[in-house]
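Recall the central idea of this unit: under ordinary conditions, the amino acid sequence of a chain determines the structure it adopts. In this exercise we apply that idea directly, starting from the sequence alone.
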Amino acid sequence: MTVIRVEDLSKVYDSGFQALKGIDLDIQRGEIFALLGPNGAGKTTLISVICGLVNASGGRVLVDGHDNVTDYREARSRIGLVPQELTGEAFSTVWDTVSFSRGLFGKPASPLHIEKTLRSLSLWEKRRNKLMTLSGGMKRRVLIAKALAHEPQILFLDEPTAGVDVELRRDMWEVVRQLRENGVTIILTTHYIEEAEEMADRIGVIRAGELVLVEEKRELMRKLGSKALTLHLCEPLSRIPEALADHDLTLAEDGHALVYTYDASRQGDPEGDPAAIAELLAALQAAGIHFKDLHTRQSSLEEIFVSLVQESA
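Accordingly, the structure predicted from this sequence is:
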């Protein structure tokens, strides 16, 4: 079921710069959607328009069926936004900061909900601490707690793990997964491709204000990924024999390996074209080339992302 619908959305700033160009996008309830793109691609502008922080130049946004302009309060009440930085509240305690955020949305006081939120983010023991005394990772958790204080159905995370160490990043991933299990729809922007590869159900790639692609992660990697079959040879080769010239082969590891690269979606089979691989193995045998081991490697999401951005340039 669609929880956010973006229709023909555009944004042109007073300077004449067009940040968004005819964006159409549906976000499904309960999914984790990752929005990827280089700096200046329009990620933050798109999030800001959906959240009602920036006015669109054209098109519209529906949040759980509510227009985010004509029915702003209802639309915005369903959204929690986690920005990149925590500012202006250095002397407030964690408890007061999160409670205040709940009140901003007109929600009645609920100490039980605030306690549950802080406990779920491992902040309960820090509830009386002033924000200025917290580590960067704890401040990042407070940002999430603030965004969840009014019990939103949708959570936007703008670069949620930027600047935190690897261990804390993985802790944050677990927090996000738990939120999704509790029914919260997650939309995140990230520069860490591994973050999208690890967590996302679907991925959108934006470049120069246009959505280049929106696809389920697994399907994206199946359709656009390439695979490399590496054959470790019993005896090294100085060059590839002419009898194998018709195959897409390269020598690696100082002649001790042959690498065959192929389209992972060829013939609609995620393992590539079985006939072509069988033909290659037969050609190797005919040429008297023997191998002792083989393995395959599929393109990572990062490689696919780079190729998409380059193709769209």
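Residues 265-272 have pLDDT under 50 and may be disordered.
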